[in-house]
Protein backbone atom coordinates (compact mmCIF):
# COMPACT_ATOMS: atom_id res chain seq x y z
CA UNK A 1 0.00 0.00 0.00
CA UNK A 2 1.57 3.24 -1.12
CA UNK A 3 1.22 6.24 1.13
CA UNK A 4 1.53 9.54 -0.65
CA UNK A 5 2.24 11.91 2.22
CA UNK A 6 2.20 15.70 2.47
CA UNK A 7 5.98 15.51 2.41
CA UNK A 8 5.92 13.78 -0.98
CA UNK A 9 3.45 16.32 -2.32
CA UNK A 10 5.55 19.26 -1.11
CA UNK A 11 8.79 17.94 -2.52
CA UNK A 12 7.17 17.26 -5.89
CA UNK A 13 5.59 20.72 -6.01
CA UNK A 14 8.80 22.50 -5.04
CA UNK A 15 10.92 20.30 -7.32
CA UNK A 16 8.81 20.87 -10.40
CA UNK A 17 8.49 24.58 -9.59
CA UNK A 18 12.29 24.75 -9.52
CA UNK A 19 12.51 22.93 -12.85
CA UNK A 20 9.85 24.92 -14.66
CA UNK A 21 9.74 28.45 -13.15
CA UNK A 22 12.96 29.63 -14.86
CA UNK A 23 11.63 28.56 -18.24
CA UNK A 24 8.23 30.16 -17.56
CA UNK A 25 9.94 33.43 -16.59
CA UNK A 26 12.00 33.28 -19.78
CA UNK A 27 8.87 32.80 -21.88
CA UNK A 28 6.98 35.58 -20.08
CA UNK A 29 9.80 38.09 -20.60
CA UNK A 30 9.98 37.33 -24.30
CA UNK A 31 6.65 39.15 -24.54
CA UNK A 32 7.87 42.19 -22.63
CA UNK A 33 7.79 45.43 -24.61
CA UNK A 34 10.84 46.80 -22.80
CA UNK A 35 14.39 45.79 -23.59
CA UNK A 36 15.18 45.78 -19.87
CA UNK A 37 14.43 42.72 -17.79
CA UNK A 38 13.60 44.90 -14.83
CA UNK A 39 10.66 46.73 -16.27
CA UNK A 40 7.44 45.17 -17.43
CA UNK A 41 6.31 47.58 -20.14
CA UNK A 42 3.32 45.68 -21.40
CA UNK A 43 2.65 42.81 -23.77
CA UNK A 44 4.37 42.87 -27.12
CA UNK A 45 5.48 40.48 -29.81
CA UNK A 46 7.99 42.90 -31.32
CA UNK A 47 11.03 40.78 -30.35
CA UNK A 48 9.67 37.96 -32.47
CA UNK A 49 9.44 40.37 -35.38
CA UNK A 50 13.02 41.52 -34.86
CA UNK A 51 14.19 37.94 -34.55
CA UNK A 52 12.70 37.02 -37.91
CA UNK A 53 14.31 40.02 -39.54
CA UNK A 54 17.74 39.16 -38.18
CA UNK A 55 19.50 37.51 -41.13
CA UNK A 56 22.37 36.23 -38.96
CA UNK A 57 20.04 34.25 -36.74
CA UNK A 58 18.07 32.85 -39.66
CA UNK A 59 21.29 31.76 -41.40
CA UNK A 60 22.62 30.18 -38.22
CA UNK A 61 19.30 28.38 -37.69
CA UNK A 62 19.42 26.99 -41.23
CA UNK A 63 23.04 25.81 -40.79
CA UNK A 64 22.12 24.17 -37.49
CA UNK A 65 19.16 22.32 -38.98
CA UNK A 66 21.26 21.08 -41.92
CA UNK A 67 24.04 19.91 -39.60
CA UNK A 68 21.59 18.21 -37.24
CA UNK A 69 19.74 16.47 -40.08
CA UNK A 70 22.82 15.01 -41.76
CA UNK A 71 24.71 14.26 -38.55
CA UNK A 72 21.75 12.49 -36.94
CA UNK A 73 21.01 10.48 -40.08
CA UNK A 74 24.63 9.31 -40.45
CA UNK A 75 24.82 8.71 -36.70
CA UNK A 76 21.69 6.56 -36.82
CA UNK A 77 23.08 4.37 -39.61
CA UNK A 78 26.50 4.01 -37.98
CA UNK A 79 25.07 3.68 -34.45
CA UNK A 80 22.62 0.96 -35.51
CA UNK A 81 25.43 -0.93 -37.23
CA UNK A 82 27.61 -0.57 -34.14
CA UNK A 83 24.80 -1.77 -31.88
CA UNK A 84 24.22 -4.79 -34.12
CA UNK A 85 27.94 -5.57 -34.04
CA UNK A 86 28.06 -5.27 -30.26
CA UNK A 87 25.02 -7.45 -29.62
CA UNK A 88 25.02 -9.95 -32.50
CA UNK A 89 28.45 -10.26 -34.12
CA UNK A 90 29.93 -12.42 -31.39
CA UNK A 91 33.65 -12.35 -30.78
CA UNK A 92 36.09 -10.69 -33.13
CA UNK A 93 39.58 -9.30 -32.65
CA UNK A 94 39.50 -5.87 -31.04
CA UNK A 95 35.98 -6.20 -29.65
CA UNK A 96 36.94 -4.70 -26.30
CA UNK A 97 38.47 -1.67 -27.99
CA UNK A 98 35.32 -1.32 -30.09
CA UNK A 99 32.94 -1.31 -27.14
CA UNK A 100 35.31 1.02 -25.30
CA UNK A 101 35.18 3.46 -28.21
CA UNK A 102 31.36 3.30 -28.14
CA UNK A 103 31.06 4.08 -24.43
CA UNK A 104 33.99 6.49 -23.96
CA UNK A 105 32.55 9.42 -25.92
CA UNK A 106 29.47 9.34 -23.66
CA UNK A 107 31.55 10.39 -20.65
CA UNK A 108 34.27 12.32 -22.46
CA UNK A 109 34.17 16.05 -21.64
CA UNK A 110 33.05 17.99 -24.70
CA UNK A 111 36.09 20.27 -24.52
CA UNK A 112 38.38 17.26 -25.04
CA UNK A 113 36.32 15.78 -27.88
CA UNK A 114 36.22 19.18 -29.59
CA UNK A 115 39.92 19.85 -29.13
CA UNK A 116 40.99 16.44 -30.40
CA UNK A 117 38.79 16.63 -33.50
CA UNK A 118 40.03 20.11 -34.31
CA UNK A 119 43.64 18.96 -34.06
CA UNK A 120 42.81 16.05 -36.38
CA UNK A 121 41.14 18.28 -38.97
CA UNK A 122 44.09 20.65 -38.92
CA UNK A 123 46.52 17.74 -39.05
CA UNK A 124 45.00 16.28 -42.21
CA UNK A 125 44.45 19.71 -43.75
CA UNK A 126 40.64 19.54 -43.91
CA UNK A 127 39.13 23.03 -44.14
CA UNK A 128 36.82 23.68 -41.24
CA UNK A 129 33.20 24.35 -42.09
CA UNK A 130 29.84 22.66 -42.14
CA UNK A 131 31.39 19.30 -43.19
CA UNK A 132 33.71 19.12 -40.19
CA UNK A 133 30.86 19.96 -37.80
CA UNK A 134 28.77 17.18 -39.36
CA UNK A 135 31.67 14.70 -39.00
CA UNK A 136 32.18 15.70 -35.36
CA UNK A 137 28.47 15.50 -34.46
CA UNK A 138 28.06 12.17 -36.26
CA UNK A 139 30.88 10.71 -34.18
CA UNK A 140 29.57 11.57 -30.73
CA UNK A 141 25.91 11.09 -31.61
CA UNK A 142 26.45 7.58 -33.08
CA UNK A 143 27.53 6.42 -29.64
CA UNK A 144 24.26 7.57 -28.06
CA UNK A 145 22.29 5.94 -30.89
CA UNK A 146 24.13 2.67 -30.46
CA UNK A 147 23.41 2.61 -26.70
CA UNK A 148 19.69 3.20 -27.33
CA UNK A 149 19.47 0.63 -30.14
CA UNK A 150 21.56 -2.05 -28.42
CA UNK A 151 19.34 -1.95 -25.32
CA UNK A 152 16.43 -2.82 -27.62
CA UNK A 153 18.41 -5.49 -29.52
CA UNK A 154 19.38 -7.22 -26.27
CA UNK A 155 15.78 -7.54 -25.17
CA UNK A 156 14.30 -9.17 -28.26
CA UNK A 157 14.06 -12.81 -29.14
CA UNK A 158 16.90 -13.89 -31.42
CA UNK A 159 15.04 -17.00 -32.52
CA UNK A 160 12.86 -14.78 -34.73
CA UNK A 161 15.95 -13.91 -36.79
CA UNK A 162 17.01 -17.55 -36.83
CA UNK A 163 13.58 -18.59 -38.09
CA UNK A 164 13.84 -16.10 -40.95
CA UNK A 165 17.26 -17.48 -41.86
CA UNK A 166 15.95 -21.09 -41.72
CA UNK A 167 13.12 -20.12 -44.03
CA UNK A 168 15.60 -18.98 -46.66
CA UNK A 169 16.20 -15.30 -45.97
CA UNK A 170 19.65 -13.90 -46.59
CA UNK A 171 21.11 -12.26 -43.46
CA UNK A 172 20.37 -8.85 -44.95
CA UNK A 173 16.75 -9.79 -45.70
CA UNK A 174 16.38 -11.16 -42.20
CA UNK A 175 17.63 -7.86 -40.85
CA UNK A 176 15.36 -5.78 -43.09
CA UNK A 177 12.20 -7.89 -42.70
CA UNK A 178 12.49 -9.05 -39.08
CA UNK A 179 15.04 -7.16 -37.03
CA UNK A 180 14.53 -3.66 -38.34
CA UNK A 181 10.74 -3.52 -37.82
CA UNK A 182 11.21 -4.72 -34.24
CA UNK A 183 13.95 -2.28 -33.34
CA UNK A 184 12.37 0.58 -35.33
CA UNK A 185 11.08 2.48 -32.25
CA UNK A 186 14.60 2.47 -30.78
CA UNK A 187 16.11 3.54 -34.10
CA UNK A 188 13.63 6.43 -34.32
CA UNK A 189 14.26 7.57 -30.77
CA UNK A 190 17.99 7.25 -31.41
CA UNK A 191 17.62 9.53 -34.42
CA UNK A 192 15.63 12.06 -32.39
CA UNK A 193 18.19 11.96 -29.60
CA UNK A 194 21.03 12.48 -32.09
CA UNK A 195 19.13 15.34 -33.73
CA UNK A 196 18.56 17.12 -30.40
CA UNK A 197 22.15 16.57 -29.26
CA UNK A 198 23.40 18.09 -32.49
CA UNK A 199 20.97 21.05 -32.30
CA UNK A 200 22.08 21.71 -28.76
CA UNK A 201 25.83 21.37 -29.02
CA UNK A 202 27.92 24.46 -28.42
CA UNK A 203 31.37 23.28 -27.37
CA UNK A 204 32.21 20.71 -30.05
CA UNK A 205 30.75 22.95 -32.77
CA UNK A 206 32.85 25.90 -31.55
CA UNK A 207 36.00 23.85 -31.97
CA UNK A 208 35.19 22.27 -35.30
CA UNK A 209 33.39 25.05 -37.15
CA UNK A 210 34.85 27.45 -39.66
CA UNK A 211 33.88 30.58 -41.53
CA UNK A 212 30.32 30.57 -42.82
CA UNK A 213 29.22 27.68 -40.63
CA UNK A 214 28.16 29.43 -37.44
CA UNK A 215 25.53 27.32 -35.71
CA UNK A 216 22.67 28.67 -33.64
CA UNK A 217 24.15 27.72 -30.23
CA UNK A 218 27.39 29.54 -31.11
CA UNK A 219 25.36 32.59 -32.16
CA UNK A 220 23.20 32.44 -29.00
CA UNK A 221 26.23 31.99 -26.77
CA UNK A 222 28.01 35.04 -28.13
CA UNK A 223 24.78 37.06 -27.85
CA UNK A 224 24.06 36.16 -24.21
CA UNK A 225 27.61 36.15 -22.90
CA UNK A 226 27.34 39.73 -21.76
CA UNK A 227 23.73 39.91 -20.75
CA UNK A 228 20.08 39.18 -21.34
CA UNK A 229 18.66 39.89 -24.76
CA UNK A 230 14.93 39.85 -25.51
CA UNK A 231 15.48 38.44 -29.01
CA UNK A 232 17.15 35.42 -27.45
CA UNK A 233 14.19 35.09 -25.07
CA UNK A 234 11.92 35.03 -28.11
CA UNK A 235 14.11 32.44 -29.83
CA UNK A 236 14.18 30.32 -26.66
CA UNK A 237 10.40 30.51 -26.36
CA UNK A 238 10.02 29.20 -29.91
CA UNK A 239 12.43 26.33 -29.21
CA UNK A 240 10.78 25.44 -25.88
CA UNK A 241 7.42 25.50 -27.66
CA UNK A 242 8.58 23.09 -30.37
CA UNK A 243 10.13 20.68 -27.86
CA UNK A 244 7.08 20.72 -25.58
CA UNK A 245 4.79 20.06 -28.51
CA UNK A 246 7.03 17.23 -29.75
CA UNK A 247 7.39 15.51 -26.38
CA UNK A 248 3.69 15.72 -25.53
CA UNK A 249 2.72 14.41 -28.99
CA UNK A 250 5.21 11.54 -28.72
CA UNK A 251 3.97 10.53 -25.28
CA UNK A 252 0.33 10.67 -26.44
CA UNK A 253 1.19 8.48 -29.44
CA UNK A 254 3.04 5.92 -27.33
CA UNK A 255 0.15 5.88 -24.82
CA UNK A 256 -2.28 5.37 -27.68
CA UNK A 257 -0.27 2.47 -29.13
CA UNK A 258 0.06 0.88 -25.69
CA UNK A 259 -3.72 1.06 -25.18
CA UNK A 260 -4.32 -0.35 -28.67
CA UNK A 261 -1.87 -3.17 -28.09
CA UNK A 262 -3.48 -4.07 -24.78
CA UNK A 263 -6.90 -4.12 -26.45
CA UNK A 264 -5.66 -6.35 -29.28
CA UNK A 265 -4.04 -8.73 -26.84
CA UNK A 266 -7.26 -8.98 -24.86
CA UNK A 267 -9.21 -9.62 -28.09
CA UNK A 268 -6.71 -12.31 -29.08
CA UNK A 269 -7.07 -13.97 -25.68
CA UNK A 270 -10.84 -13.97 -25.95
CA UNK A 271 -10.84 -15.52 -29.43
CA UNK A 272 -8.35 -18.19 -28.37
CA UNK B 1 32.36 -10.87 -46.01
CA UNK B 2 29.22 -8.87 -45.12
CA UNK B 3 30.00 -9.40 -41.47
CA UNK B 4 33.46 -7.96 -41.97
CA UNK B 5 32.05 -4.87 -43.71
CA UNK B 6 29.46 -4.45 -40.97
CA UNK B 7 32.13 -4.47 -38.29
CA UNK B 8 34.70 -2.51 -40.25
CA UNK B 9 32.58 0.50 -41.12
CA UNK B 10 31.72 1.78 -37.61
CA UNK B 11 35.06 0.49 -36.30
CA UNK B 12 37.14 2.48 -38.78
CA UNK B 13 34.96 5.54 -38.27
CA UNK B 14 35.57 5.49 -34.51
CA UNK B 15 39.27 4.80 -34.93
CA UNK B 16 39.65 7.71 -37.32
CA UNK B 17 37.46 10.22 -35.53
CA UNK B 18 37.82 9.22 -31.90
CA UNK B 19 41.01 7.30 -31.14
CA UNK B 20 43.44 8.90 -33.59
CA UNK B 21 42.38 12.46 -32.66
CA UNK B 22 43.04 11.60 -29.06
CA UNK B 23 46.46 10.20 -29.92
CA UNK B 24 47.17 13.51 -31.67
CA UNK B 25 46.22 15.44 -28.52
CA UNK B 26 48.55 13.23 -26.51
CA UNK B 27 51.39 13.74 -28.97
CA UNK B 28 50.96 17.52 -29.17
CA UNK B 29 50.90 17.72 -25.38
CA UNK B 30 54.47 16.39 -25.49
CA UNK B 31 55.57 18.73 -28.28
CA UNK B 32 56.92 22.24 -28.41
CA UNK B 33 55.02 24.98 -30.15
CA UNK B 34 57.69 26.23 -32.51
CA UNK B 35 55.83 29.24 -33.79
CA UNK B 36 52.57 28.61 -31.94
CA UNK B 37 51.05 26.88 -34.94
CA UNK B 38 51.46 23.55 -36.69
CA UNK B 39 53.58 21.65 -37.51
CA UNK B 40 54.57 20.73 -34.02
CA UNK B 41 58.06 19.46 -33.52
CA UNK B 42 59.04 16.69 -33.59
CA UNK B 43 57.37 15.21 -36.62
CA UNK B 44 57.13 11.48 -37.03
CA UNK B 45 59.05 10.58 -40.21
CA UNK B 46 57.69 7.22 -41.24
CA UNK B 47 60.10 7.03 -44.17
CA UNK B 48 63.04 6.74 -41.76
CA UNK B 49 61.65 3.58 -40.21
CA UNK B 50 62.59 2.55 -36.69
CA UNK B 51 65.41 5.09 -36.36
CA UNK B 52 63.00 7.82 -37.28
CA UNK B 53 60.64 6.58 -34.57
CA UNK B 54 63.42 6.59 -31.97
CA UNK B 55 64.45 10.10 -32.95
CA UNK B 56 60.81 11.10 -32.65
CA UNK B 57 60.50 9.67 -29.14
CA UNK B 58 63.74 11.31 -28.02
CA UNK B 59 62.43 14.73 -28.98
CA UNK B 60 59.24 14.44 -26.93
CA UNK B 61 59.33 15.89 -23.45
CA UNK B 62 57.11 16.75 -20.53
CA UNK B 63 57.83 20.45 -20.74
CA UNK B 64 54.15 21.39 -21.03
CA UNK B 65 53.29 19.27 -18.00
CA UNK B 66 56.10 20.89 -16.03
CA UNK B 67 54.68 24.24 -17.06
CA UNK B 68 51.25 23.19 -15.71
CA UNK B 69 52.68 22.31 -12.31
CA UNK B 70 54.60 25.58 -12.09
CA UNK B 71 51.70 27.86 -12.89
CA UNK B 72 49.32 27.55 -9.94
CA UNK B 73 46.35 28.67 -12.08
CA UNK B 74 46.09 25.15 -13.48
CA UNK B 75 46.20 23.03 -10.38
CA UNK B 76 43.93 25.51 -8.62
CA UNK B 77 41.50 25.10 -11.51
CA UNK B 78 41.65 21.28 -11.29
CA UNK B 79 41.06 21.38 -7.55
CA UNK B 80 38.28 23.91 -7.80
CA UNK B 81 36.56 21.88 -10.57
CA UNK B 82 36.69 18.79 -8.33
CA UNK B 83 35.39 20.81 -5.37
CA UNK B 84 32.54 22.38 -7.35
CA UNK B 85 31.67 18.99 -8.88
CA UNK B 86 31.66 17.34 -5.44
CA UNK B 87 29.50 19.90 -3.64
CA UNK B 88 27.10 20.32 -6.53
CA UNK B 89 26.67 16.54 -6.64
CA UNK B 90 25.84 16.52 -2.91
CA UNK B 91 23.35 19.39 -3.32
CA UNK B 92 21.76 17.79 -6.40
CA UNK B 93 21.34 14.56 -4.43
CA UNK B 94 19.70 16.50 -1.59
CA UNK B 95 17.29 18.21 -4.01
CA UNK B 96 16.76 15.21 -6.29
CA UNK B 97 16.14 12.42 -3.79
CA UNK B 98 12.90 13.84 -2.35
CA UNK B 99 11.62 14.43 -5.89
CA UNK B 100 12.40 10.86 -6.97
CA UNK B 101 10.88 9.58 -3.70
CA UNK B 102 7.73 11.61 -4.27
CA UNK B 103 7.47 10.31 -7.84
CA UNK B 104 7.85 6.71 -6.71
CA UNK B 105 5.13 7.22 -4.08
CA UNK B 106 2.74 9.03 -6.39
CA UNK B 107 -0.44 7.29 -7.55
CA UNK B 108 0.14 5.01 -10.55
CA UNK B 109 -1.87 7.13 -12.96
CA UNK B 110 0.25 10.24 -12.27
CA UNK B 111 3.56 8.57 -12.92
CA UNK B 112 3.79 8.71 -16.72
CA UNK B 113 3.05 12.46 -16.55
CA UNK B 114 5.59 13.05 -13.77
CA UNK B 115 8.19 11.08 -15.71
CA UNK B 116 7.47 13.11 -18.82
CA UNK B 117 7.87 16.34 -16.83
CA UNK B 118 11.30 15.19 -15.62
CA UNK B 119 12.40 14.11 -19.10
CA UNK B 120 11.09 17.21 -20.93
CA UNK B 121 14.03 19.43 -19.86
CA UNK B 122 16.40 16.82 -21.38
CA UNK B 123 15.06 17.70 -24.80
CA UNK B 124 15.20 21.45 -24.24
CA UNK B 125 18.42 23.22 -25.07
CA UNK B 126 21.00 23.08 -22.29
CA UNK B 127 22.24 26.52 -23.30
CA UNK B 128 18.76 28.03 -22.98
CA UNK B 129 18.23 26.49 -19.55
CA UNK B 130 21.49 27.99 -18.31
CA UNK B 131 20.72 31.32 -19.97
CA UNK B 132 17.32 31.46 -18.23
CA UNK B 133 19.13 31.95 -14.89
CA UNK B 134 20.98 35.01 -16.15
CA UNK B 135 17.76 37.00 -16.18
CA UNK B 136 16.75 35.66 -12.78
CA UNK B 137 19.97 36.07 -10.83
CA UNK B 138 21.31 39.40 -12.06
CA UNK B 139 21.27 42.44 -9.80
CA UNK B 140 18.16 43.79 -11.52
CA UNK B 141 16.87 40.28 -12.09
CA UNK B 142 13.58 38.68 -11.21
CA UNK B 143 14.81 37.16 -7.92
CA UNK B 144 16.21 40.41 -6.55
CA UNK B 145 13.09 42.29 -7.69
CA UNK B 146 10.89 39.82 -5.86
CA UNK B 147 12.98 39.84 -2.67
CA UNK B 148 13.18 43.65 -2.67
CA UNK B 149 9.45 43.87 -3.32
CA UNK B 150 8.71 41.58 -0.41
CA UNK B 151 11.02 43.58 1.81
CA UNK B 152 13.23 40.59 2.60
CA UNK B 153 16.36 42.46 1.57
CA UNK B 154 17.18 46.15 1.30
CA UNK B 155 19.72 46.03 -1.48
CA UNK B 156 20.09 43.57 -4.34
CA UNK B 157 22.11 40.41 -3.69
CA UNK B 158 25.04 39.81 -6.00
CA UNK B 159 24.55 36.25 -7.18
CA UNK B 160 25.27 36.32 -10.90
CA UNK B 161 28.96 35.92 -11.78
CA UNK B 162 29.74 34.19 -8.49
CA UNK B 163 30.22 30.53 -7.61
CA UNK B 164 26.73 30.50 -6.06
CA UNK B 165 25.26 31.09 -9.52
CA UNK B 166 27.42 28.27 -10.89
CA UNK B 167 26.09 25.90 -8.22
CA UNK B 168 22.49 26.91 -8.96
CA UNK B 169 23.07 26.39 -12.68
CA UNK B 170 24.62 22.96 -12.19
CA UNK B 171 21.94 21.72 -9.80
CA UNK B 172 19.24 22.99 -12.15
CA UNK B 173 20.58 21.49 -15.38
CA UNK B 174 21.79 18.17 -13.94
CA UNK B 175 18.77 17.49 -11.69
CA UNK B 176 17.05 15.08 -14.14
CA UNK B 177 20.25 12.97 -14.31
CA UNK B 178 20.01 12.50 -10.54
CA UNK B 179 16.24 11.99 -10.30
CA UNK B 180 15.86 9.35 -13.03
CA UNK B 181 18.21 6.62 -11.71
CA UNK B 182 17.00 7.10 -8.12
CA UNK B 183 13.38 6.95 -9.26
CA UNK B 184 13.97 3.74 -11.20
CA UNK B 185 15.59 2.18 -8.11
CA UNK B 186 12.80 3.31 -5.77
CA UNK B 187 10.08 2.24 -8.16
CA UNK B 188 11.20 -1.39 -7.93
CA UNK B 189 11.12 -1.32 -4.14
CA UNK B 190 8.79 -3.87 -2.59
CA UNK B 191 6.43 -2.08 -0.18
CA UNK B 192 5.96 -5.17 1.94
CA UNK B 193 9.55 -4.73 3.15
CA UNK B 194 8.58 -1.38 4.64
CA UNK B 195 5.48 -2.86 6.23
CA UNK B 196 7.59 -5.63 7.70
CA UNK B 197 10.04 -3.09 9.12
CA UNK B 198 7.22 -1.14 10.69
CA UNK B 199 5.56 -4.27 12.05
CA UNK B 200 8.86 -5.11 13.66
CA UNK B 201 8.84 -1.79 15.48
CA UNK B 202 10.69 0.63 13.21
CA UNK B 203 9.48 4.20 13.10
CA UNK B 204 8.81 5.57 9.62
CA UNK B 205 12.09 7.47 9.63
CA UNK B 206 14.04 4.43 10.84
CA UNK B 207 12.38 2.30 8.16
CA UNK B 208 13.44 4.83 5.55
CA UNK B 209 17.10 4.79 6.63
CA UNK B 210 17.25 1.06 7.27
CA UNK B 211 15.26 -0.20 4.28
CA UNK B 212 14.42 2.33 1.57
CA UNK B 213 17.69 4.23 1.38
CA UNK B 214 20.04 1.20 1.32
CA UNK B 215 17.89 -0.41 -1.39
CA UNK B 216 18.10 2.71 -3.54
CA UNK B 217 21.88 2.94 -3.14
CA UNK B 218 22.66 1.73 -6.69
CA UNK B 219 20.44 4.46 -8.15
CA UNK B 220 21.93 7.09 -5.83
CA UNK B 221 25.47 6.16 -6.87
CA UNK B 222 24.56 6.11 -10.56
CA UNK B 223 22.94 9.54 -10.24
CA UNK B 224 25.94 10.96 -8.38
CA UNK B 225 28.38 9.78 -11.05
CA UNK B 226 26.12 11.06 -13.84
CA UNK B 227 26.35 14.51 -12.25
CA UNK B 228 29.93 14.45 -10.95
CA UNK B 229 31.70 13.22 -14.12
CA UNK B 230 30.36 15.73 -16.66
CA UNK B 231 30.44 18.67 -14.23
CA UNK B 232 34.24 18.42 -13.87
CA UNK B 233 34.73 19.34 -17.53
CA UNK B 234 31.76 21.74 -17.69
CA UNK B 235 32.24 24.84 -19.84
CA UNK B 236 28.89 26.54 -20.52
CA UNK B 237 27.74 27.00 -16.92
CA UNK B 238 30.92 28.60 -15.50
CA UNK B 239 31.31 30.86 -18.51
CA UNK B 240 27.71 32.11 -18.51
CA UNK B 241 26.94 32.22 -14.79
CA UNK B 242 30.37 32.30 -13.17
CA UNK B 243 32.62 35.28 -12.71
CA UNK B 244 36.31 35.92 -13.09
CA UNK B 245 36.82 34.14 -9.75
CA UNK B 246 35.22 30.92 -11.00
CA UNK B 247 38.02 28.55 -11.88
CA UNK B 248 36.88 25.49 -13.78
CA UNK B 249 39.14 23.44 -15.98
CA UNK B 250 36.77 23.20 -18.94
CA UNK B 251 36.64 26.98 -19.12
CA UNK B 252 40.44 27.28 -18.75
CA UNK B 253 41.00 24.76 -21.55
CA UNK B 254 38.59 26.59 -23.85
CA UNK B 255 40.25 29.93 -23.14
CA UNK B 256 43.77 28.51 -23.40
CA UNK B 257 42.87 27.29 -26.82
CA UNK B 258 40.87 30.17 -28.26
CA UNK B 259 42.36 33.17 -26.48
CA UNK B 260 45.99 32.20 -25.96
CA UNK B 261 46.25 29.79 -28.89
CA UNK B 262 48.69 27.71 -26.90
CA UNK B 263 47.82 24.31 -28.29
CA UNK B 264 50.48 22.18 -26.60
CA UNK B 265 49.47 23.51 -23.16
CA UNK B 266 45.77 23.09 -23.95
CA UNK B 267 46.51 19.48 -24.97
CA UNK B 268 48.40 18.83 -21.74
CA UNK B 269 45.45 20.29 -19.77
CA UNK B 270 43.15 17.89 -21.64
CA UNK B 271 45.34 14.83 -20.97
CA UNK B 272 45.48 15.52 -17.22
CA UNK B 273 41.73 16.16 -17.11
CA UNK B 274 41.19 12.77 -18.69
CA UNK B 275 43.51 11.08 -16.19
CA UNK B 276 41.49 12.64 -13.35
CA UNK B 277 38.25 11.40 -14.91
CA UNK B 278 39.40 7.80 -15.25
CA UNK B 279 38.82 7.03 -11.56
CA UNK B 280 35.16 8.12 -11.36
CA UNK B 281 34.44 6.62 -14.79
CA UNK B 282 35.79 3.20 -13.75
CA UNK B 283 33.85 3.36 -10.45
CA UNK B 284 30.70 4.25 -12.40
CA UNK B 285 31.18 1.26 -14.74
CA UNK B 286 31.65 -1.08 -11.76
CA UNK B 287 28.48 0.26 -10.14
CA UNK B 288 26.50 -0.25 -13.36
CA UNK B 289 27.79 -3.81 -13.73
CA UNK B 290 26.91 -4.61 -10.13
CA UNK B 291 23.38 -3.32 -10.64
CA UNK B 292 22.93 -5.30 -13.85
CA UNK B 293 24.08 -8.46 -12.11
CA UNK B 294 21.73 -7.79 -9.19
CA UNK B 295 18.82 -7.56 -11.63
CA UNK B 296 19.50 -10.96 -13.11
From TrEMBL, chain A:
InterPro entries: Bact_Polyamine_Transport (IPR051789), MetI-like (IPR000515), MetI-like_sf (IPR035906)
Membrane topology listed for this record: Multi-pass membrane protein
UniProt keyword annotation of NAD present: no
Gene3D superfamilies linked: MetI-like
Transmembrane residue ranges: 12-31, 60-86, 98-124, 130-154, 174-194, 232-253
Highest taxon of source: Bacteria
ABC transmembrane type-1 domain residues: 61-253
This protein's UniProt keywords: Cell membrane, Membrane, Transmembrane, Transmembrane helix, Transport
Protein's GO biological process: transmembrane transport
Subcellular location: Cell membrane
GO CC annotation: plasma membrane
Similarity comment: family membership: Belongs to the binding-protein-dependent transport system permease family. CysTW subfamily.
PANTHER family, per the entry: PUTRESCINE TRANSPORT SYSTEM PERMEASE PROTEIN POTI
Protein name per the record: Inner membrane ABC transporter permease protein YdcV
Organism of derivation: Pelagimonas varians
UniProt lineage: Bacteria, Pseudomonadati, Pseudomonadota, Alphaproteobacteria, Rhodobacterales
Automatic annotation (TrEMBL), chain B:
SUPFAM superfamilies: MetI-like
Span of domain ABC transmembrane type-1: 78-284
Transmembrane segments: 84-102, 114-133, 165-186, 207-229, 266-286
Pfam families: BPD_transp_1
InterPro entries referenced in this protein's UniProt entry, alphabetically: MetI-like, MetI-like_sf
Compartments reported by the entry: Cell membrane
Any GO BP: transmembrane transport
This protein's name: Putrescine transport system permease protein PotH
Originating species: Pelagimonas varians
Lineage per the UniProt record: Bacteria, Pseudomonadati, Pseudomonadota, Alphaproteobacteria, Rhodobacterales
Gene name of the encoded protein: potH_2
Amino acid sequence: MRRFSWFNATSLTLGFAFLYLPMIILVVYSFNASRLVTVWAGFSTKWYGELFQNKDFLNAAWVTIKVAFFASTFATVLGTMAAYVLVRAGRFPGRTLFSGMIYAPLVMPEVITGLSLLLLFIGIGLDRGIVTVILAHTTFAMCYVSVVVSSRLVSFDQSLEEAALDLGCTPFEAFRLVTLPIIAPAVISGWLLAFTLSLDDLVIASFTTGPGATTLPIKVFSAVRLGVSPEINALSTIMIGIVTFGVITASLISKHTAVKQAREERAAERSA
Amino acid sequence: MRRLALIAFPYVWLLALFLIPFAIVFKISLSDAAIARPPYLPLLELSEGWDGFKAFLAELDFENYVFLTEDDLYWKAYLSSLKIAFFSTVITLGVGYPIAYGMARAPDEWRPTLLMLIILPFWTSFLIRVYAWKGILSNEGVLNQALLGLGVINEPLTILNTNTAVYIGIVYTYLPFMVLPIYSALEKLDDSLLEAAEDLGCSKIQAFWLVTFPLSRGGVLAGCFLVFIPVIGEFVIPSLLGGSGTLMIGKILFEEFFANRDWPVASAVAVILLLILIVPIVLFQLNQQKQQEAER
